[in-house]
Amino acid sequence: MDSHVEIDRIDPASADSSVLEGVYQVISASDQLDNPGAPATTFATAIGRLNDPQPNLGPVRRWVARRDGRVVGLAALYFPEAENSHLSLLQLTVHPDARRNHIGTAILRAITPEVRAHDRTVLECWNITKGSAGTSFATALGFEVVSTTVCQTLSIGDVDRSAWEVEPAAGYRLHTWHGAAPDELVASYAVARRAIADSPFGRSALRFPAWTVDRVRESEAESRRREIDHRVVAVVREDSDQVVTAVVNACMSR
Asked: Which of 19, 95, 145, 227 shows its CA 20 to 30 Å from the CA of 173?
């Protein structure tokens, strides 16, 4: 490990304000360089995401890397469960000013024992911009590109909203809900959520959840515990009351 870099576990909920400010500076500077077209990330949004990690990805562990007292790098390891218990998901970010100084390598070396301790056999990194320093770093360490995603951003204020104000096709209706799916729709809703599993996902080791009624209800209960509001728009067949597709949006309710 680089003798000039200190790597420590952190809990965002109890971290010192100066540490959180350092974390935000790493996230903000990296986003501006690696994702120049994306909206700027605010302090509240960045730290809020740390305190409320993505649902359905399992427990998360976080680290910061400091050099001369300054936060210069971050790492998060997610440990998905059930069908993904072989996998650990890594988010690793180094401040642009501190890159090419082996900080990322030092972080990866420091957190690898945690991966082994959870009996994970595959480590995947997500959200790496093609052609960025992150790509060069990962491939130099032996990682391979297994899936590519095109991200598109829609600025609601700049488009004609009537473009999507259309009626459902004949024989179908829209049904919306917050939180828990209606009892009469939950079974077909689970089936509809499983349907995404046939979408192209390259050679990623991540497996889509095998949604069942029980699993939907468990996920809803976990979201309520974390004060996450699930807002769902489903397309339902008029002749059978079966959900055929659904869009799920999760947002913090507090």
From this structure: 227
